[in-house]
């Protein structure tokens, strides 16, 4: 239902340099001139999908969609995945401690982290580039590795990738930390009023044991659902962040595919994102059952 097709998008960029006959040939090559019904096309799509064939990417020189996605997926998972996991564990730990020590000076962290979480990704990224790249020169401002470097598994290349990914990763962590801290703190405030926490304290257990084995273990359960969704959307990447830092992830691939009306690549990316969200939710249910024995109980 979108206006135009990949051939029209290509012709718009090459006005006057492609003949009508060549345009018709491109439509035949892309399979856009088919007279088959939508139902026939849909059934054929499922047949190819079950054989692991996601089609050919129009905007990537007719390269297989699986290869295009496979080229960008590791970059997004490596950057956004590590940043999301780090943000979750750091924010949850801080939120648990702040909730345990409610009324102390640690509460001052909450409004600061909450304020930073309201700052848009792209604005924080631009500020980070201006300060740490332009002014201080500590980190590169763009790309996943230095220009002219051939990707390999040497320590020099790995160090170069880490150096380039540190600034965007820190941007993601700082921008998302407030939500994890605030959510965990609020749950800790609720859990600390429960009877089992009072009983654990009355039994003479150490404050650290009460915090880790009773309070935080129950308070973290609602966080797992949000964490699962965050893990699922890692595959989608942080689109704006990837654009600001010119990072070669799947988020940028999705934007490029949309602009080029590259339907096979768009469908492939949407499918991978959907599967990632479903798998992450299944893993969250498993973790929930492992942490909460009540979910494993069955009626006699």
Automatic annotation (TrEMBL):
Pinpoint the ABC transmembrane type-1 domain residues: 73-284
Q: Which residues cross the membrane?
A: 75-100, 121-141, 161-182, 227-248, 268-291
Q: Which domain of life is it from?
A: Bacteria
State where the protein is found: Cell membrane; Membrane
GO terms for cellular component:
plasma membrane
Concerning InterPro entries, the annotation shows: MetI-like, MetI-like_sf
Example GO BP: transmembrane transport
Q: Which UniProt keywords apply?
A: Membrane, Transmembrane, Transmembrane helix, Transport
Per the record, membrane topology reads: Multi-pass membrane protein
Q: Give the signal peptide as a residue range, or say none if absent.
A: none
Keyword Disulfide bond (UniProt): no
Question: What family name appears in the similarity comment?
Answer: Belongs to the binding-protein-dependent transport system permease family.
Q: Name the PANTHER family on file.
A: OLIGOPEPTIDE TRANSPORT SYSTEM PERMEASE PROTEIN (PTHR43376:SF1)
In Swiss-Prot or TrEMBL terms, this protein is called ABC transporter permease
Organism of origin: Cellulosimicrobium arenosum
